[in-house]
Amino acid sequence: MSTTRRKTRVVCISDTHNQTPKLPPGDVLIHAGDLTNQGSYTELKRKVEWLEKQDFEAKIVIAGMKK
């Protein structure tokens, strides 16, 4: 049995409100909410397109806004 360990780099962001920040490299991206300002279809579509372009093995996106 191999005992090789692999480190996993997790990048966690939130409250981007339609911004598309440059992200550091990582294996897992977590976006913890507040993707958009108003939650409109157009805003959400743009954010999903941006998320799809990010180079991560796994992406976890939590929808919604904290109020």
UniProtKB/TrEMBL annotation:
Gene3D superfamilies with a match to the protein in the record: 3.60.21.10
Domain of life of the source: Eukaryota
InterPro entries: Metallo-depent_PP-like (IPR029052), UPF0046_metallophosphoest (IPR051693)
SUPFAM superfamilies tied to this protein: Metallo-dependent phosphatases
PANTHER family recorded: METALLOPHOSPHOESTERASE (PTHR12905), SER_THR PROTEIN PHOSPHATASE FAMILY PROTEIN (AFU_ORTHOLOGUE AFUA_1G06000) (PTHR12905:SF16)
Protein name per UniProt: Metallo-dependent phosphatase
Organism for this UniProt entry: Alternaria burnsii
Source organism phylogeny: Eukaryota, Fungi, Dikarya, Ascomycota, Pezizomycotina
